[in-house]
């Protein structure tokens, strides 16, 4: 019976010994979350733990940072549409040129910006053509719904202390929440916390197949949040920064699903007519996720062919 | 601001504790002012504009309190002032909580051309309104004493209870802030309070939020489920609601304890109740006490007075006659539960929920008259345990059936879901929710019920440190697992791990279910 329980120490005890015991206990209780908080920062910077702690998507994004001595003729730089929808191996074979993609996601671009492209250009021969390949609603990076983990992971792995410091000043709150996202993001180390098994993806010249399987329904509707995204600041900046005498640039709008309101997106002018509007494809060929732009395997050949024609027209005069 | 958010845990709470420590080194008054201002900031974080409503309500009621205390207790002037205050409070509550849903209901029934809009419900409006009405009633009756503004502000807004209770009674809290003691952070109280907070956080983030997707899926199917899926959804909701509210109450009590303030208990293993009367003594205990003191008792008092005037008997024996039972038990009980139902929301489904509980309680009171309880609680034998086990299951079943209406989007959806639950072989042409869609529900449900029925509750675990003002009578039953918290290395590591897990799962914080009331 509870009423017979003698308190071990008096309630609201303020004696020195009670205070000492309470303080020691709080120290023990808080040390575990503290260590768990520190670990992701240390692990991402340590050569020893880096591979074990790499997240599922991180393994793909890492390709951009490791692409040294590639010396490609055509470099594709874009969002996740470029990652899933373009097959550079197929392009290389059909064009007779070496084509690679530098994988990014919209979320990683928010943190890294054009860093992966800069890094590539520092470590490789300048390409003949840089293709900026984006879905029409990813032309700016000013969306409040963004998640930062993809980019932060790469920043911690590959960024300099100065870059980390600059990011910390810019987004201190995001930086502090990084450890919690680290555990939730999934990696070889934390895989036991996730229901599905971790299968490392095979990155071929910066391309991986879309990991989802469920197709968009044929009666899909593009949400207003996507339709409202119209600024092009980020891609405009890329065009002005990376145009050079030896390197041509090209902007391509990724094909989009033919959902309701898609024609509104298609009807817009992109970059004063320099970029063709996106092609509408059957919604069932796209994955059912909030990006509305990731193609299932059945459509990749079509999108790659559309890009191939655009590159051919730019570099080889349409021959 | 949510207790289960990074902003609260890493921002508000440390600043509050540091401020408390600094204010405590000056004067008791500084502590009261600091906590009052911090509580207002806590409230404003969600929607700053609603601070005006909270502030207006506090100022208005404080003014009424001043006027009532100047008039002598129980005089006509005091009574008139009290009624004016009650009408003003209920009008504010009615405007935000009931007017637009009621107009929508009228529109739905009569298909009028005017479509009423909607209004955002200020968080905690029911709780701070009820708290203040109770204070004014007690002030008018001479039970409560007049307060200075800062003490009154803190009594109403004290952040651990502001949004979803417990509903504080002035006699429980005011003396604790007026006590002549050292107002500084005590590591002993911090250890007890923070442990309690972590237990609550774990319940909310790791347990309740895990049951939510299954419950949401089934209740959104508008009855297009199989019998098994319907049961899984309803039981998942029962556990979601249990861990959600239990977690909230633990966090609220724990936070108060961190500041060396004891709260009354608000939740005491209600699914272990062996009858529906027992259930309401364990579920939202402060609301039950409030309703009992300020609604049920006055109604019963009026009925008894009327019977006396008519020359009818009012003894216990008279209560045992069908006519006496109807007037003195069934009517006040059903009416009170009708009000409790409406308090939870403006939809018809809440009314059904309240009336169902009214009927349950009336039947339970009638049963008690017929068969007075005689099970020995001190040393129950095998038969007693069996009877108790069956009673607990039966009570739980009744509660779950009423909860279908509590959660359903409409009365029709509730009835449809009940039909699915009771028709084992009913064929559904196209069930929109299949069991395969639900995430390992049976294992989760089993684990949930093991925790609910076999483990002691948090105040029992913390009993050696007197975690609350009073233990619930139910907490004095013998326990299956005698687990006691102590500030030891093992408990520190266990709760440290639970805290870490909760923090990881906190990335998309969900609101507490009781926030909508």
Question: What features would you highlight for this structure?
Answer:
heterodimer, A: 319 residues, alpha/beta, four-stranded parallel sheet, two-stranded parallel ribbon, 6 strands, disordered N terminus, B: 517 residues, mainly alpha, 2 domains, 20 helices, globular
What does this structure look like?
The complex is a heterodimer of chains A (319) and B (517). Chain A is α/β, with parallel strands linked by helices and 319 residues long. Chain A has one domain. Helix content of chain A is 47%, strand content 8%. In chain A, helix 5 crosses helix 14. Chain B is mainly alpha-helical. Helices cover 67% and strands 0% of the residues of chain B. The longest helix of chain B is centred in the N-terminal third of the chain and has 35 residues. The mean pLDDT of chain B is 87. At the A-B interface, helix 1 and helix 10 of A face helix 9 and helix 20 of B.
Strand and helix map with partners:
The complex is a heterodimer of chains A (319) and B (517).
Chain A: H1 16-45, H2 47-53, H3 56-66, E1 74-78, H4 80-85, H5 88-95, E2 99-102, H6 106-112, H7 115-123, E3 129-134, H8 149-158, H9 161-170, H10 172-185, H11 224-227, H12 233-242, E4 248-253, E5 256-257, H13 262-266, E6 280-281, H14 297-315
Parallel strand pairs in A: 1-2, 1-3, 3-4, 5-6
Helix pairs in contact in A: 1-2, 1-10, 3-8, 5-14, 6-8, 9-10
Chain B: H1 6-24, H2 28-44, H3 50-70, H4 76-110, H5 125-140, H6 149-157, H7 159-162, H8 170-178, H9 187-219, H10 227-258, H11 276-280, H12 285-309, H13 316-319, H14 322-344, H15 348-370, H16 382-407, H17 411-422, H18 441-454, H19 458-461, H20 489-504
Give the structure's gist in a few sentences:
The complex is a heterodimer of chains A (319) and B (517). Chain A has 319 residues and is of the alpha/beta class.
Q: Quick check: average pLDDT of chain B?
A: 87
Total DSSP helices of chain B: 20
- Largest beta sheet of chain A, briefly? 4 strands, parallel
Q: N- to C-terminal separation of chain A? A: 91 Å
What would you call the structural class of chain A? alpha/beta
Tally of structural domains of chain A: 1
């Amino acid at each position: 019976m509870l009423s017979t329980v003698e308190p071990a120490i008096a309630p609201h005890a303020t004696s020195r010994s009670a205070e000492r015991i309470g303080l020691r206990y709080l120290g023990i209780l808080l040390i575990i979350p503290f260590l768990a908080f520190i670990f992701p920062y240390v692990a991402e910077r340590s050569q020893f733990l880096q591979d074990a702690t790499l997240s599922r998507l991180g393994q793909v994004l890492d390709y951009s940072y490791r692409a040294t001595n590639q010396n490609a003729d055509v470099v594709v730089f874009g969002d996740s549409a470029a990652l899933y929808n373009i097959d550079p191996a197929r392009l290389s074979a059909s064009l007779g040129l070496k084509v690679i993609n530098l994988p990014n996601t919209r979320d990683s671009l928010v943190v890294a910006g054009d860093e992966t492209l800069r890094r590539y250009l520092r470590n490789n021969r300048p390409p003949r053509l840089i293709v900026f390949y984006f879905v029409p609603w990813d032309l700016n990076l000013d969306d409040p719904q963004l998640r930062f983990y993809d980019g932060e992971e790469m920043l911690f792995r590959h960024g300099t202390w100065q870059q980390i410091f600059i990011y910390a000043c810019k987004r201190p709150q995001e930086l502090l929440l990084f450890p919690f996202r680290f555990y939730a993001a999934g990696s070889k180390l934390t895989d036991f916390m996730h229901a599905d098994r971790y299968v490392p993806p095979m990155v071929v010249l910066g391309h991986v197949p879309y990991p989802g399987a469920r197709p968009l329904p044929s009666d899909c509707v593009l949400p207003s949040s996507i339709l409202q995204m119209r600024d092009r600041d980020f891609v405009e900046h890329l065009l002005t920064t990376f145009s050079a005498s030896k390197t041509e640039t090209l902007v391509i709008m990724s094909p989009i699903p033919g959902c309701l309101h898609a024609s509104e997106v298609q009807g817009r002018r992109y970059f004063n007519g320099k970029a063709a509007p996106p092609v509408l494809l059957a919604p069932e060929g796209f994955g059912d996720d909030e990006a509305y732009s990731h193609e299932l395997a059945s459509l990749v050949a079509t999108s790659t062919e559309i890009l191939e024609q655009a590159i051919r027209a730019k570099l080889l005069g349409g021959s | 601001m949510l207790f289960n958010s990074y902003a609260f845990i890493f921002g508000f709470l440390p600043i509050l504790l540091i401020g408390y420590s600094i204010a405590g080194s000056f004067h008791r008054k500084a502590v009261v002012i600091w906590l009052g201002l911090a509580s207002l900031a806590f409230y404003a974080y969600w929607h700053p504009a609603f601070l005006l409503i909270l502030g207006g309500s506090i100022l208005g009621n404080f003014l009424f309190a001043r006027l009532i205390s100047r008039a002598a207790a129980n005089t006509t002037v005091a009574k008139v002032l009290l009624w004016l205050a009650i009408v003003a409070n209920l009008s504010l509550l009615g405007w935000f909580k009931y007017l637009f849903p009621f107009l929508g209901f009228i529109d739905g029934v009569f298909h009028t051309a005017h479509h009423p809009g909607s209004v955002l419900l200020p968080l905690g409006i029911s709780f701070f309104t009820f708290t203040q009405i109770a204070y004014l009633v007690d002030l008018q009756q001479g039970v409560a004493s007049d307060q200075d503004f800062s003490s009154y502000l803190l009594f109403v807004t004290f952040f651990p209870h502001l949004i979803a209770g417990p509903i504080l009674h002035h006699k429980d809290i005011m003396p604790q802030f007026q006590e002549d003691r050292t107002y500084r952070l005590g590591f002993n109280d911090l250890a007890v309070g923070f442990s309690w907070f972590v237990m609550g956080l774990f319940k909310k983030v790791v347990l309740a939020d895990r049951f939510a997707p299954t419950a949401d899926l089934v209740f959104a199917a508008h009855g297009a489920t199989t019998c098994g899926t319907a049961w899984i959804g309803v039981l998942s909701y029962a556990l979601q609601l249990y861990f959600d509210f239990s977690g909230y109450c633990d966090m609220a009590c724990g936070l108060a304890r961190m500041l060396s303030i004891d709260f009354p208990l608000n939740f005491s293993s209600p699914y272990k109740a062996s009858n529906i009367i027992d259930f309401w003594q364990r579920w939202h205990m402060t609301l039950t006490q409030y309703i009992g003191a300020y609604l049920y008792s006055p109604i019963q008092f009026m009925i008894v007075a009327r019977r006396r005037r008519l020359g009818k008997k009012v003894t216990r024996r008279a209560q045992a006659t069908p006519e006496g039972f109807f007037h003195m038990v069934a009517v006040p009980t059903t009416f009170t539960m009708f009000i409790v139902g409406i308090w939870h929301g403006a939809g018809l489904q809440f009314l059904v929920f309240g009336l169902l509980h009214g009927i349950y309680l009336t039947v339970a009171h009638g049963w008690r008259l017929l068969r007075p309880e005689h099970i020995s609680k001190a040393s129950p034998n095998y038969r007693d345990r069996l009877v108790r086990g069956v009673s607990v299951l039966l009570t739980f079943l009744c509660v779950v059936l009423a909860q279908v209406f509590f959660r359903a989007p409409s009365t029709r959806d509730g009835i449809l879901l009940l039909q699915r639950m009771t028709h084992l072989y009913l064929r559904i042409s196209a069930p929109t929710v299949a069991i395969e869609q639900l995430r390992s529900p049976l294992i989760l449900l089993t684990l949930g019920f093991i925790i609910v029925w076999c483990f002691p509750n948090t105040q029992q675990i913390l009993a050696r440190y007197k975690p609350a003002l009073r233990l619930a009578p139910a907490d004095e039953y013998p326990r299956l697992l005698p687990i006691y918290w102590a500030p030891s290395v093992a408990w520190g590591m266990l709760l440290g791990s639970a805290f870490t897990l909760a923090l990881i799962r906190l990335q998309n914080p969900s609101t507490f279910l009781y926030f909508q009331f």
